[in-house]
Design goal:
The chain is built from seven helices and twelve strands. By secondary structure, the chain is of the alpha+beta class. InterPro entries: DNA/RNA_pol_sf (IPR043502), RT_dom (IPR000477).
């Protein structure tokens, strides 16, 4: 769905005006999801109380050990992360970052097709930001940066890009080379 939204938005705008597209890849996102923040989000969104309790049980009291050179460590508690490949994991992550997406939409940052907001199509931990001007894109990037710090995850600087299409030229820049979070693109 996110790819279709991106494709439609670019088709609508392409050749008419400059579009800024930021592709953001969250770094080890599933590993760093705070259980406390996640459970707060699930309750906040009004998830059925039984499902909230099941989700909380799924992630409370989780322990792990490390085996190295035939030796096993003592167990330790796990307070963050959702299971890689778990059936619920992508849905739980969506609940974890939904406030970010709603904040961008509420601030009316990003592009629209007609009256439909398409400023941040997202699939699991991959976020795309779409804007028609540089200053707005920078504001969106700053909001993502602040949210990621507050929610304990990072954007992968080598896997995140800003693509600028002017109608004649397409320029792709690695975010790591292009900006330090909080500075202008």
């Amino acid at each position: 769905m996110a790819a279709q939204i991106l494709s439609e938005a670019c088709s609508e705008i392409s050749g008419k005006q400059t579009i800024f597209v930021s592709t953001l890849d969250s770094q080890k996102t599933f590993d760093v999801v705070s259980h406390e923040i996640l459970m707060d989000r699930l309750y906040y969104y009004g998830l059925n109380l039984n499902l909230c309790n099941i989700s909380e049980e799924l992630y409370s009291g989780v322990t792990s050990t490390v085996k190295w050179k035939g030796e096993t460590s003592t167990s330790f508690d796990i307070h963050q992360g959702v299971r890689q490949g778990g059936i619920l994991s992508t849905h739980l992550y969506k609940a974890y970052i939904n406030e970010l997406l709603l904040d961008l939409q509420k601030r009316n940052l990003g592009t629209h097709i007609g009256n439909n907001y398409v400023g941040c199509p997202t699939c699991a931990d991959d976020i795309v930001l779409l804007s028609l001007n540089r200053e707005e894109m920078q504001e969106m990037l700053n909001i993502v940066d602040n949210y990621s710090k507050d929610h304990r995850f990072n954007m992968h600087p080598q896997k995140s890009n800003v693509i600028i299409e002017t109608g004649k030229n397409i320029t792709s820049l690695k975010i790591a080379m292009l900006l330090k979070w909080g500075t202008m693109i």
